[in-house]
Amino acid sequence: MLKTNKWFRLFYSKPQMAAIIIALLIIGVLILWLIRPGLNDQDPSSLATFTVQKGALTISVTESGTIKPRDQIILKNEVEGKTSILWLIQEGTVVKEGDLLVELDTSQLIDERINQQIAVQNSEAAYIGARENLEVIKNQAQSDLDNARLQLDFARQDLKKYIEGEYPNALKEAEARITLAKEELGRAEETVRWSKRLFNEKYISQAELQADELVLKTKELELELAESSLDLLKNYTHKKRLAELESNLKQAEMSLERTTRKARANVIQEEADLKARESQFRRQKDKLEKIERQIEKTSIYAPVNGIVIYATSARSGGRFRRTEPLAEGQAVQERQELIHLPTTSSLKAEIGVHESSMEKIKKGMPVKVTVDALPDRIFSGTVDMIAPLPDADSAWMNPDLKIYNTVIFLDGNSDLLRTGMTCRAEIIIEQYDHAVYIPIQAVLRVGGEPTVYVVDGKAVKPRRVETGMDNNRMIRIISGLKEGEVVLLTPPLESAAVDKTRGRSVPDPMQKSQEGFNQLPPEKTRDRGK
Questions:
Q1: How many Cα neighbours within 13 Å face the side chain of 371?
Q2: Most exposed of 129, 227, 289, 376 (fewest Cβ within 10 Å)?
């Protein structure tokens, strides 16, 4: 049993299984090639053929889409973040300007408003405090500056007073004392001379002479003291006092500069703090106003008269879009479309055109539009806009599929059409009254040239032709074939080659015919099957 499972796993392992399949395919191709009869060996009557037709031929591109208003106002959710729908007007209601359409949940915003009101009050109090404090700082700075200027003036006056008043007076006083001392010393000397003469003549006593000599000695000392005071004043006291006053003046100047800078710095600091508090206050007020506006935006009113169309209904007609219908209690995002209000009765059709048909269609081409709900009516229109880039939704669903949104303006107004109806639009590329045409699968490229295989009696011969445009079913033959000739519908594929050096070439006919078959309406595929 284990051995059997081992061989089973070995046989069905992915690399070996792929190799076995490839080998079987090669063998099968060789067998088919060996037993295949030649094309000219077969009886042409047994092959699928088509008789070349000549007549009316329409080259068109048909795609499905949705009927929408041509001009409309789109109402979006402008509440930030995610919110939910509390109340929603019924779709299809005819409303007037100012009617309430949608009411969103406001509970969270109301809580935020209460918290923000408290924050605004706190920031306002801080702002007022900073503003008053700035005035206090300005007053204190002015007071300090006035005091510093006053001290500087005092220092200047003290220095000037000393240089121009106090020192000259002191100098004169010292010199006057010396002069007085000299005069008194002279008188004392004269007195002593007379006293000595009188003492020698016995007119005065020894004591009186000694008293006069003592007075002389005193006057000599007073003169020395006056001269010493003058020297002290000039060499020491004056220099010290002058240096002290000059230093006081310099210190006063520096104190004024420090006070000025400090006052300016304090004022600037308080002004910056005031600006910060003011900015914070305004920011908190702006946030409160923003919350108030957000609360106002939770109620969406009709800006004009119109009929209510849910945005989800307007998008649901696309080929790949599937959106949950709008309903009460549903969560919605910011900038999400909620309501479409048509402003005119004119309509348009939005379709998605496959990238393979993009080079065919142009703005202004005529269009025939049919609506599934009105199968017997055909509405006319023109291509108005072709998107320059593929639709992102379809590219996300299938990266290999590129669909370009195309807008078709419908002619006139019709009360039968409704927004959101599914439609099919046939864009008329070219119309011919007398065109030679054959099925597209009958054309191959052989050696880079479009080629058909013409049945001539019991023989089949290749013939090069010049082709025009196709409508995914029939291709126009410009030259090379005539009406009534018979061509093979299943020419030999091994002769086909894709020409990459020219413009639009006829692709693999079997693949192209299958694509065309898949894109036809059900009734046309049934006719073609016949």
A1: 21
A2: 376
Residue 403 has pLDDT above 50, yes or no: yes
Q: Distance between CA atoms of 104 and 71, rounded to whole angstroms?
A: 26
pTM for this structure? 0.54
Rounded to an integer, the average pLDDT of 472-492 is 89
Instruction: Return d(Cα 49, Cα 44) in angstroms, integer.
Output: 8
pLDDT recorded at residue 292: 95
Closest CA to 474 of 513, 521, 440: 440
- Cβ neighbours around 120 below 10 Å, total: 20
- The CATH number assigned to the domain with range 72-105+298-343 reads 2.40.50.100
Calculate the alpha carbon distances from 518 to 353, 472, 526 in Å.
15, 10, 11
Whether 339 shows a pLDDT value over 50: the answer reads yes
How does 358-370 read in b/e, with b if 16+ C-beta sit within 10 Å?
bebbeeebbbbbb
Give CA–CA dist 527/524, Å, rounded.
5
Q: Which CATH architecture has domain 110-293?
A: Orthogonal Bundle (1.10)
Query: Helices (DSSP H) in 233-309: which residue ranges?
Result: 238-297
**Contact (CB, 8 A) for 379 and 370:** yes
- What is the per-residue pLDDT for 39? 45
